[in-house]
């Protein structure tokens, strides 16, 4: 049975899923129709983009190629594959998925930071306060069982346009996961990645 994580909670993936080698990080969200400054906006006017940042032992990115997102769908090592951009968030289940083969990650990558940002948020005057039912979940691809899920409450993130959802990191010889849930005001992915150079 999957663990429902609370903000700041950490789990050992070795303990929860012994022999884990391949995981899928799924992200999902819904947007309710609401009135903005310029009238009614619809759910399909929102475009949330999921990305993963591959960090070294100093919590730094070595290069732009260590950011896997809708314009760079595969890490150079072949260990991480983004399944593509969902422009609307419509439908049930995961809206975007990122696949990770932990055994193929280069030794100097010690942390994977899963982030999401709202595309053109300032231009469209949108924030995570208008997003509901947002979640990040980790699935063991060896048996397709969900290991852990972290659900976010949109009301907590009014005015925030970018968010670190979760981190998967090496701690000595095992992988762990932390539910982060840290929101901030950014104008796109570039402003998120800038803090890691």
UniProtKB/TrEMBL annotation:
Origin superkingdom: Bacteria
Gene3D superfamilies noted in UniProt: sav2460 like domains
Boundaries of every TerD domain copy: 1-196
InterPro entries (UniProt xref): Stress/Tellurium_Resist (IPR051324), TerD (IPR003325)
Pfam family, one: TerD
Membrane-spanning residues: none
Protein name in UniProt: Stress protein
Organism in which the protein naturally occurs: Crocosphaera watsonii WH 8501
Phylogenetic classification of the source organism: Bacteria, Bacillati, Cyanobacteriota, Cyanophyceae, Oscillatoriophycideae
